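Project standup — Tuesday

K.O.: blocked on the structure for the chain from last sprint. Re-posting the sequence here as requested.
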Amino acid sequence: MRKRFWVAMAVVAACAALAVVAVVAVGARRGTHPPAQFSLDMAPVPPLTAAACVSEARRYGFSASAGAIICAPGARYVWYQATLANRGPYGLPACAATGFDAHGKPVFTGRLFFDIGGIRGLFVPGHGSITFYWYLPRKTRVPVSRFTATCSPVHGPPNV
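H.V.: unblocked you, prediction finished:
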């Protein structure tokens, strides 16, 4: 009789241990989030020359004259080089960034406009990435030393 009692207790303890492991595993899985579809790495760079900016705009289908028009305001703004990665299927990104000065103080916070020239969105193929140069949508009072950025997919059909 005593042996049966201890065998039953061992079975109960083993079941309790398995239940604890299962609860911890499910809780840990719920606590993790899949990686964001888009990521944006940005670094401040010197302003592009007018010719280099037009060349950058031409990569996205703009004519030289249209490129000159959309590049003209850039002479007054902070420029950045960025790599935009898409870990998912086709999608258009909506991104926001914060630019920090040399002391770590935010000097720019806002949305980044990837409809270069207001005409089309910045397309990133599924499971791919692109690197580009562009400028912030507004002036900063002091130079930007580093950036952080977050992105999310734009839902709905793309603007063409």
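K.O.: great, moving the ticket to review. Residues 1-32 form one domain. The first strand starts at residue 38 and ends at 45.
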